[in-house]
Protein 1
Amino acid sequence: MVTTKILSREALAAWCRRAREARLRLVFTNGCFDLLHVGHVRYLQAARALGDRLVVGLNDDGSVTRLKGPTRPLVPAAERAEMLAALACVDAVCLFPEDRPDDLIGIVRPDVHVKGGDYRKEDLQEAPLVESLGGEVRIVPLVEGRSTTAIVRRILEGCR
């Protein structure tokens, strides 16, 4: 089990401080990452390529339910965190209970904040915060046809 990459907010703050002292370029992204799939992996690899260290903010179970509905998450937060931490491109994972990652962005102070191609920079509520901290927002294209919703839909259609 990979747990050394799964950090509390306090441990993440110290980890980021050391990374900044070493002049490493910090990249941050966040999401639910329910049912990890190749679209997620390619997205995270692209995000990691934009810097030296990738921090993933992971919505906890309560925030996933609020954002995605009462049937989600499909996979509990601890397991989602463990799967993300097992990826070579991910350097740190931190769970958060809020619906938005503003507090984690304040802790990480990323050089780059990455979101998927289903977002537009001008629609991201956290973009002004990232930029006020000296970071930039980058949008990474999604892998067509690869989403948790599409996978769930195919599974449900197969069960009929």
Protein 2
Amino acid sequence: MATAKTAYLTPVEQQALLALARDALERGVRGLPIPEPDWEALPPRLREPGATFVTLTEHGQLRGCIGSLEPVRPLARDVQENAVAAALRDPRFWPVRPEELPHLRVEVSYLTPLRPLPYTTPDELVRKLRPGIDGVVLVDPETGRRATFLPQVWEQLPHPEDFLSHLSLKMGAPPDLWQRKPLQVFTYEVQKFAEAA
């Protein structure tokens, strides 16, 4: 899903990004350099700054996921960098091995801009979240730690209280941190697309 501020990527743009992600993934896992995209051949949108997450799955199980929350580099380059990072630098997993490449499926999530979500009580925060729609960023202003869950995570954690508790854990904090102290909360939406199964 995308908002008016971030128009949907077209099928042509989606396929171009998936091809860039797959090529970078294959090269990165084999220790080969990642070439600059052919900027002249790419759709103009992919040359503009954009924020993405690249998720790798193997036989339906998560194998790596890394991304950018804010648009700091061209969309095409962001997807390349995140594909390699998801394969080699997700701290939850061993680096992907070349023999795994044929079994990996690449999914790209294209993010809308972050929006602050003001709230005054934990109950209000729970009420304001939109399960299945909102990606959520929690920031602890005292420590600077932050973590995010993509909207896809609602499929495993459909209740906002569980979602926020697991997100607090991901941030390296106790699961009830979001109930004990005020945090900065941001939301975003994604347009997700993937290689054919």
